Amino acid sequence: MLPVFSWRGGGTMFVVRVENDEATSYRAFRRSQTARAWAAERNGEDVDCLVDVFETSGLGDDPRGAIAAVRAGNAREILRGEALAARPPVTTGASDIDFGVAVAV
Question: Is position 4 within any domain?
Fold first, then answer.
């Protein structure tokens, strides 16, 4: 019998928050590098938006829980939008591609 591995109860998720005049949206990722790359891309597309990246721990593979933690203020901000403008974009390899979960508010 194979062991059962679950992300529930452990692990880290990364959430990108995008704010503009019209709405605030969130997207959760499993990898920091992928979240940062997606945030840099969004920051470059719209100069009138604020993009921040947050880290949530202990939520496992639960994107909605990670987004709820950011909205409640229970996440650690690891990258502010101003820092994204000063850095070159992060590139990811094919093996690093991670499809996030988007939730609009």
Answer: no
Q: Is the pTM of this model over 0.85?
A: no
pLDDT (tens place) for every residue of the chain, 105 residues total: 444 444 445 678 999 999 988 899 999 999 999 999 999 888 877 667 889 999 998 877 889 999 999 999 999 999 987 666 655 555 555 444 455 555 555
7 falls within a domain: no
- Cβ atoms of 12 and 28 closer than 8 Å: no
Q: How many structural domains are present in the chain? A: 1
Q: Domain span at residue 34?
A: 12-104
